[in-house]
Amino acid sequence: MKQESAVRNVTVSSARQALRHLASAERAKINQWFFKTGKGEYAEGDRFIGVTVPHIRSVVKQYQNLPLVQVLKLLPSKIHEERLLALLILVAQFQRGDSKTQKQIADAYVTNLQYVNNWDLVDSSAHYILGVYLSDKSRKRLYTLARSSRLWDRRVSIITTLHFIKQGDFTDTLKLAKLLLKDPEDLMHKAVGWMLREVGKKDQGVLERFLKTHYQQMPRTMLRYAIEKFPQAKRMQYLKGLF
Length: 243
Description:
Elements: H1 2-8, H2 12-21, H3 25-34, H4 53-63, H5 68-74, H6 80-96, H7 99-111, H8 119-123, H9 126-133, H10 140-146, H11 151-160, H12 162-166, H13 171-179, H14 186-202, H15 204-214, H16 220-226, H17 232-239
Helix pairs in contact: 4-6, 5-6, 6-7, 9-11, 10-11, 11-14, 13-14, 14-15, 14-16
C-alpha cells in the first residue's frame, strides 16, 4: 500500500511543491545576479526561487521515476530550478535506461532544447545525454547546433563532446573548436577553452598542435582557459604570441 501511495504522489505538482519547500528568497536574489538575468544580459527574464543544486539533486532522487511525459511538462517551466530538476531527472533516467529509453530521452532532449537555456542547464545535461547517445552515431547534429544563432545551442554542441573526450576521442571537439573560434559570446569562449583544456589533460600534444595553428586567432578568454594547466612559462609564451 505504501509503495502504491508513493507512486501516486510522484507528480509534476508534487515535484514543484518539493522544490518550493527548499526555496530561499535570499538565494533567489543571489542567483538572479549570478546568472545574469537583468535587462540585456544573457539570461534576461529567467526566474529563480532559490534552491541550491544539492537540494535539487535530493528532489531528483525522490522523482527519478516520474514518467517521461510528466518530466517534459516540467521542462518548459519559467522557473530555472524546475527546468534544472527536469533535466537532472532526464539524466538519471537516461543513465539507467535501455537503448529504447535512451533514444526516447535523447530525442526529447533535442526537441526541447529551447528550454535548455542557461549555461548550468547545458553543462548538467548535454554530455550526459547527447554525448553518450551520439558515441556510436553520426554527429552531424552537433555541427548544425554549432552554426545556430542561439547561444545555448552552440554551447550544447561543444559541451556534448566532453563525453567523447573522456573516451579519448578528440576529433569533434577540435573541429567544433575551430568552427567556433570567432564566436562573439564570452560564454562560448569559456566553453570552448574548457573543452580544449580537457583534451590537453588527456593528451597535451594534441592540444598543443591545435594551439600552434590557431592560438593567434583565439579570443583571449578561450586561450586562457585552454592553457590553464600549462606551466607558467609556457602559458606566458602563448599569451605573448611567442610560438
